Amino acid sequence: LIDSPRSAAELQKLLGSSSPGPVYHHLRELVGTGLVVQTARHYAVAARHVVPVLAAVTAALDLGHRPGS
Fold it and tell me: What pLDDT does 57 receive?
């Protein structure tokens, strides 16, 4: 969603989900918090949240790294 807006169907396919329900559920929550914005039928990370989202992903990846693995 940072690279380009995507529809719920595109996200469902990318995630390999067999049901659209969970995708819509999570999108509704993300839109509700303002982290994601919806335009027409597409969703994107709100511009003001791009840097914080990237920082959070980087931190999560760093925490998941185990020395020697």
Answer: 85
Neighbours of 12 (CB within 10 A): 18
Chain centroid to CA 34 = 12
Query: Residue written as tokens 């819509």?
Result: 24
> Which strands make up the sheet holding 6-7, listed edge to edge?
6-7, 42-45, 36-39
Closest CA to 44 of 31, 58, 55: 31
- Vertex 28 angle, CA 15 and 48, to 5°: 90
Length of the chain: 69
| Stated pTM of the model | 0.73
